[in-house]
Amino acid sequence: MRYFFILLLSLVCVGCAHRNPLSDFRFQTVTAPPYILASWYQITQPGEPIKIYIEGDGNAFDSNGVPTDNPTPTGEFMRRLAAEDPSPNVAYLGRPCQYLQAGACSQKDWTTGRFSNQVIDSMDQSVRALMKKARTNQVILIGFSGGAQVAGLIAVRHPNQVKQVITIAGVLDVDAWADYHGDPKLVDSLNLKNQQDSFSKIPQIHYAGGRDDVVPAKLIQDFVKDENLVVVVPKASHGKGFDSIYDALYKVR
Q: Hey, is 90 helix, strand or coil?
């Protein structure tokens, strides 16, 4: 009963201030032990690749840096990106404990363990469930902020099924990102940096904000090391001002 109450409340609240950008998509919970994840999808050409937008860390910390009780995103950036993508098969995938605080949710899942093996296993299962829904074995992963780390860690597990990884303001080296902010390491998390050789063989493009002080462009450039794979959007900050990339993003199929 508690699970369905939280589900109903969260879905209503997603549209409290505005119409839910994903209201034309189908909502589906994905049981991916030990979590139950929220996803929205629109599939019009089964058999074609599916583009999956992976949410960032959401409302994991308050303005004082204190962990919240609910990491559900307050912004609509990734939901709007997914909703406006004209590709035939598109999905939006929340992270564990976002929208649905169901399953084995604990504060560690959006703090020190946000990229734990357990979390990545669950996200991987969810991606594969959406691929099955689209009847395809090809996926394009688009990750924002911490969702970029998730996309990368899933991609190195299935390099032959990932057509491309696209990141926006992506946390690609967890340790370097923590060091930049003077924060403790995410001791319960994996780090894509440790699989960089495998990741480098996967088609990819990375968008960075020139005014982003959450994930500065230099951190992305230092990780990627190939200037042809990093596009710096001069006036963009974290999750804002990326309008100029939308056409290129939507053309990826």
A: strand
Instruction: Give the closest residue to 173 by CA, choosing from 229, 222, 126.
Output: 222
Record the pTM: 0.93
Query: For residue 91, what are the contacts with CB-CB under 8 A and spacing of at least 6?
Result: 25, 39, 40, 41, 42, 50, 51, 52, 53, 82, 130, 133, 134
DSSP at 96:
T
Residue carrying structure tokens 């100029």:
244
Listed as ranges, residues in the chain with pLDDT below 50 are 1-10, 12-17
Contact in structure between 140 and 166 (CB atoms under 8 Å): yes
Task: Write down the pLDDT at residue 18.
Answer: 59
> DSSP letter at 145?
T
Starting from the edge strand earliest in sequence, which strands make up the sheet with 204-209, in order? 26-32, 35-43, 89-93, 50-54, 139-144, 162-168, 204-209, 230-233
Q: Tokens for 243?
A: 């309008």
pLDDT of 30-45, one tens digit each? 999 999 999 999 999 9
Q: What percent of the chain has pLDDT over 90?
A: 89
- CA distances to 52, 71, 159, 178, 179 from 165, in Å: 10, 24, 10, 23, 25
pLDDT score recorded for residue 8 = 41
